[in-house]
Specification:
This protein is an alpha+beta fold. It has one domain: B-lactam Antibiotic, Isopenicillin N Synthase, Chain (Jelly Rolls, Sandwich), CATH 2.60.120.330. About 35% of the residues lie in helices and about 25% in strands. The chain has an eight-stranded mixed beta sheet with strand order 1-2-10-7-12-5-4-3. A four-stranded antiparallel beta sheet has the order 6-11-8-9, with no helix packed on it. A two-stranded antiparallel sheet has the order 13-14. Helix 2 packs across helix 5. The longest helix is centred in the middle third of the chain and has 29 residues. It is globular and about 55 Å long. The protein binds 2-oxoglutaric acid and fe (ii) ion. 2-oxoglutaric acid binds next to strand 5, strand 7, strand 11 and strand 12.
């Protein structure tokens, strides 16, 4: 299904059999997912395994979380992407907090214990359950991509090398009827991002250079390819530039699971994905070194090209 914005909506909930590996439905989904990720770098997915009430609890918890005083939110000060970000010059409406490995209960609890004097067991449970379900959805998507690329035997080793960052976001209402910048254009650096947004605002840059509005739909997630998967897949999967635009009088909330790699993992394109029509685009690189390089280079979108790009030369 296409909402006239170019980005397809793929239904994982039509028939439970579709999510059984090897079924006819599964094979069709694999192709749709791969094509969407190759052409646009992502898609919207209907996924009804996450109950509506869990989204409602998340949004209720997020309002309470972002209403905490700034000095409390700033206690969550891990490394750049795991800590509190917000109220930057140029994008004053954006604020976010990162929870490292939220699908592990103790990690979610460390976060809620840090911000509330008596913890917040209910919200901790919600964060943990939601991030686990998003982790499951990402696992399905990645399996479909690998199967469709003919490299599914890499799946198990790939999954065990993952680190998960769950990031919660608030965009304060701009009180303007014009679309206003919420989050600057960027490309995610991870493998895959799974996003839930409570209202319209996400835009993806097409390969033709047009900003496409991703139409918001309740009970669905957005799946987006990050630079690391783009590199690993030898450019078969496209990592799109995207941004958030907001308008009106209501705050916008979103949450995303960013699937990253553990420190020290080497990103190496499988030989199956390199041939004379697809020369190797990136030399093998250490994910930790790349993240350090990114930080030193202000998260420049072209950082991976200078860090590990082959520049089209045979390596
Ligand atoms: O809030 C959103 O919809 C997108 C957020 C995003 O792109 C990011 O945090 O990398
Ligand atoms: Fe992003």
């Amino acid at each position: 299904m296409d909402y006239g914005c170019g980005i397809s909506c793929i239904d994982f909930s039509k028939d439970p059999k579709d999510l059984i590996e090897g079924s006819e439905g599964w094979k069709k989904l694999c192709i749709q997912v791969r094509e969407a990720c190759a052409n646009y770098g992502g898609f919207r997915v209907v996924y009804d395994r996450v109950p509506d009430v869990l989204h409602e609890e998340m949004l209720k918890g997020l309002k309470e979380l972002f209403d905490l005083p700034d000095e409390i939110k700033m206690k969550n000060s891990g490394s750049v992407h795991h800590g509190y970000l917000g109220k930057f010059e140029g994008q004053p409406l954006y604020e976010s907090l990162g929870i490292h490995n939220a699908p592990i209960l103790e990690q979610a609890q460390d976060f809620t214990d840090l911000l509330w004097p008596n913890g917040n067991p209910a919200f901790c449970q919600t964060l943990n359950s939601m991030s686990k379900m998003m982790q499951e959805l990402e696992g399905l998507v990645r399996k479909m991509i690998f199967e469709s690329l003919g490299v599914k035997h890499y799946y198990d080793s790939h999954i065990k090398d993952n680190d998960y960052l769950f990031r919660v976001m608030k965009y304060s209402a701009p009180f303007s009827d014009d679309w206003t910048l919420g989050l600057s254009p960027h490309t995610d650096q991870d493998l895959i991002t799974i996003l839930y947004e409570d209202r319209q605002g996400l835009e993806i840059l097409s390969k033709e250079g047009q900003w496409l509005q991703v139409v918001q739909q309740p009970k669905t997630f957005v799946v987006m390819v990050g630079k690391t998967l783009m590199a690993w897949s030898n450019g078969r999967m496209h990592a799109p530039k995207h941004r958030v635009m907001v308008k009106g009088e209501k705050d916008r909330y979103s949450y995303g699971l960013f699937v990253c790699l553990k420190e020290g993992v080497i990103v190496e394109t499988p030989t199956e994905l390199v041939d004379k029509d697809h020369p190797l685009l990136f030399r093998p690189f250490n994910y930790r070194d790349y993240i350090q390089y990114l930080r030193a280079n202000f998260y420049l979108d072209s950082a991976l090209d200078t860090f590990a790009g082959t520049g089209g030369r045979a390596v």
